[in-house]
């Protein structure tokens, strides 16, 4: 039997480079998929190629009402959520703090912190009410571990997100819900290759590398892991 046969897996950012690969890997393990992005239209082609039952949804993951409505639709269709994989995030930097407008910090909080607090929180609430346990896996970044010049807003947001993951893990572990994170370094994507033409992408991590780690944390093999941030760096 496939590891996720019949499990309901919610993938946020499913139209992105990583989200698409994660969705395909879970589909190969016969999971039922909920594919979420800001625009559901962008997910139709992906849903069409997956050999599994799925639904595509648009949601503002930083808005509690939007996420509550999303969870209700999932519960109506599938009965509940077994796994949440949150891949949504963003990057903005380039100047020292003393030269940066506060709106950069607000943007990073709204992209990298608020959606995790809202989405993981709402999904966890549904899991608790259902009483069947579950897995929550959040994609963070190596930058969560240490500040760096000209990246204060970004690194601060990733560190804040990591604290949310760690806190939720302690809150939910006795209820059979595992909350963990994956910390990639530079991911090999078309955008990163274009923006860093002199770098060696062979040293980076691939979306498949990350998807494999995510599926491990979402599996029964990770039942005893709570609040971990698995570092997936490759050689970068």
Fold and architecture overview:
The protein is α/β, with parallel strands linked by helices and 236 residues long. The protein has a single domain (8-232), classed as NAD(P)-binding Rossmann-like Domain (Rossmann fold). Helix content is 42%, strand content 16%. It contains eight helices and seven strands. A seven-stranded parallel sheet has the order 3-2-1-4-5-6-7, sandwiched between helices. Helix 2 (44-49) links the parallel strand 2 (32-37) and strand 3. The model has no long low-confidence stretch (mean pLDDT 95).
Percentage of residues in DSSP E strands = 15-25%
CATH architecture: 3-Layer(aba) Sandwich
Whole-number count of domains: 1
How would you write the strand order of the largest sheet?
A: 3-2-1-4-5-6-7
Number of helices: 8
**CATH homology-level superfamily:** NAD(P)-binding Rossmann-like Domain
Given helix and strand content, the structural type is alpha/beta
CATH class: Alpha Beta
Shape descriptor:
globular
Segments where pLDDT lies below 50 for 5+ residues?
Answer: none
What is the tally of beta strands? Answer: 7
| CATH topology title | Rossmann fold
| Backbone CA Rg | 17 Å
What is the end-to-end distance?
A: 36 Å
Largest sheet: 7 strands, parallel
Compressed to H and E, one letter per element, the order equals EHEHEHEHHEHEHHE
Helix amount, in percent? 40-55%
| Average residue-wise pLDDT | 95
Give a quick rundown of the structure.
The protein is an alpha/beta fold. It is 42% helix and 16% strand. It contains eight helices and seven strands, in the order βαβαβαβααβαβααβ.
């Amino acid at each position: 039997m496939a590891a996720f046969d019949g499990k309901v897996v919610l993938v946020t950012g499913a139209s992105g480079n990583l989200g698409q690969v994660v969705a395909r890997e879970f589909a190969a393990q016969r999971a039922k998929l909920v594919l979420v992005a800001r625009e559901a239209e962008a997910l139709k082609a992906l849903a069409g190629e997956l050999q599994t039952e799925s639904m595509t949804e648009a949601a503002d993951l930083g808005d509690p009402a939007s996420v509550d409505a999303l969870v209700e639709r999932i519960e109506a269709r599938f009965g509940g959520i077994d796994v949440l994989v949150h891949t949504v995030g963003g990057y903005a930097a380039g100047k020292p703090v003393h030269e940066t407008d506060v709106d950069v910090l607000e943007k990073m909080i709204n992209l990298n912190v608020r959606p995790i607090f809202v989405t993981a929180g709402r999904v966890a609430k549904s899991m608790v009410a259902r009483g069947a346990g579950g897995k929550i896996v959040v994609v963070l970044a190596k930058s969560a571990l240490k500040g760096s010049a000209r990246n204060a807003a970004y690194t601060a947001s990733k560190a804040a997100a990591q604290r949310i993951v760690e806190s939720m893990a302690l809150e939910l572990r006795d209820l059979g819900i595992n909350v963990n994170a994956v910390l990639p370094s530079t991911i090999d994507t078309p955008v990163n290759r274009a923006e860093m033409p002199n770098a060696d992408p062979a040293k980076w991590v691939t979306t498949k590398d990350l998807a494999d780690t995510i599926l491990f944390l979402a599996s029964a093999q990770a039942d005893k892991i709570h609040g971990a941030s698995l570092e997936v760096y490759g050689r970068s």
